[in-house]
Amino acid sequence: ELVRLRRHFHENPELGFEEFRTSAHIADLMEGLGLEVRRSVAKTGVVALLRGGKPGKTVAIRADIDALPVQELNDVPYKSKTPGKMHACGHDVHITAAIGAAMLLAQHRENLAGNVKFLFQPAEEGPGGAEPMIQDGALENPKVDAIIGGHVWGSLDSGVVEVLPGPIMASSDIIRLTIHGKGGHAAQPHTTIDPIVIGSEIVGALQKIVSRQTDPTEAAVISICLFRAGDTFNVIPNSAYLEGTVRTLNNTLRQEIPKKIDSVIRGVTEPYGATYELDYYFGYPVTVNDPGITESVRQSAAKILGAENVRTAARASMGAEDFAYFLLAVPGTYIRVGVRNAAKGITHDMHHPQFDVDEDVLASLPVIYAQAALDLLNASR
Ligand code: NI
Q1: Residue 142, preceding bond cis, omega within 30 degrees?
Q2: How far is the CA of 151 from the centre of ligand 1 (A)?
Q3: Do residues 264 and 205 touch, judged by C-beta distance below 8 A?
Q4: Tens of pLDDT along 129-152?
Q5: Model confidence at 381: pLDDT above 90
Q6: How far away, in angstroms, is 380 Cα from ligand 1 center?
Q7: Mean pLDDT confidence for 232-245
Q8: What per-residue confidence (pLDDT) applies to 169?
Q9: Ligand 1: centre distance to CA 25 (Å)
Q10: Most buried residue, 214, 253, 268, 273, by CB count within 10 Å?
Q11: pLDDT number for residue 193
Q12: 355 CA → ligand 1 middle, Å
């Protein structure tokens, strides 16, 4: 049943904040299981509450529900029916696993000491649905005490789960920089203020923030990924525009970097007489797992997969995830769930047009979620 359900979601992908059919289908299913359902939370999100038969705390399970603007290149019977859109990040599996956990837990609701709240979140791929869901009260009534989330992991073998206490995903911020120089003839550079030469210096100088001004044991990345300037070979343009991203695994370091960036840009532009506008946009924060809940979920997952298949991740990822906002509000943990299966030819990573998952994960992930919620509730009685 879950394979059929996952394939249905896979065939019908919808982008962030447009997940109208997806969320209606989720809400209908959760109502069918007897849960209390709130629709249209943060536009296209769904909150479904399973009230246990005994008093206790509330554990949330979060699933993101949006797809990506990717043209699917898999030749499978459940291929995306919508051109240019695809569940290339496996959120179809996240939805299905949360529904599967609800199916299991709903059968045992009389014995459940506390509540399990299912958060189906829109727009994880951007602009972000977690923060609006929190603002829309998703963590209240009843108040959520702990939260569990997970992501299918394309480089990890099916049947294996990775946990990691502390930071697991990076913060993700955006730099937008306009350099105002003075255009002119390419053969008379002394009469101009060349924004391309200045911009090039800035690209190099920014790299030294990470290599010379950041503790080498702390991870940080500054990548300038867009540099737009000029129209032809013999004209120095008036201005240049640069865009890039800043990633860290430490929320304190993250707050220090914008000032350093501004200082570097000022230091490079001033001697040339150029001016600049820097727009520093704070995106997703660092995703930081609570050590106690991470250990609890490790033990729960070990009951399902065997202890040898629940591993501590070797390192965090510099990718970002708006589950971070939930973890700033409530202690919890985010796990990586293996879906790779070379024997079945399933080897592409997330966001690839041929990304797919070993559907065997649908037999274990819902059980892991249910077991983890149950263990957390029982431990807090
Ligand atoms: Ni994703």
Answers
A1: yes
A2: 7
A3: yes
A4: 999 999 999 999 999 999 999 999
A5: no
A6: 30
A7: 98
A8: 98
A9: 20
A10: 268
A11: 98
A12: 12
Bridge partners, 229 (sequence order): 240
Q: Ligand 1: distance of its center to the CA of 73 in Å?
A: 18
Q: What is the pLDDT of residue 285?
A: 97
Give percent of the chain with pLDDT exceeding 70.
Answer: 100
pLDDT band at 294 (very low <50, low <70, confident <90, very high): very high
What is the 3-state secondary structure of the chain? CHHHHHHHHHHCCCCCCCCHHHHHHHHHHHHHCCCEEEEEECCCEEEEEEECCEEEEEEEEEEECCCECCCCCCCCCCCCCCCCCECCCCHHHHHHHHHHHHHHHHCCHHHCEEEEEEEEECCCCCCCCHHHHHHCCCCCCCCCCEEEEEEEEEEEECCCEEECCEEEECEEEEEEEEEECECEECCCHHHCECHHHHHHHHHHHHHHHHHHHCCCCCCEEEEEEEEEECCCCCEECCEEEEEEEEEECCHHHHHHHHHHHHHHHHHHHHHHCCEEEEEEEEEECCEEECHHHHHHHHHHHHHHHCHHHEEECCCCECCCCCHHHHHHHCCEEEEEEEEEEHHHCECCCCCCCCCCCCCCHHHHHHHHHHHHHHHHHHHCC
The mean pLDDT value for 279-298 works out to 98
The Å distance, Cα 223 to ligand 1 centre, comes to: 21
Tokens of 315: 């390192």
Residue 366 is predicted with a pLDDT of 98
Q: Give the pLDDT band (50/70/90) at residue 380.
A: confident
Calpha distance 379→381 (Å, rounded): 6
> Which positions are catalytic?
66, 124
For residue 348, the CA-to-ligand 1 centroid distance in Å is: 14
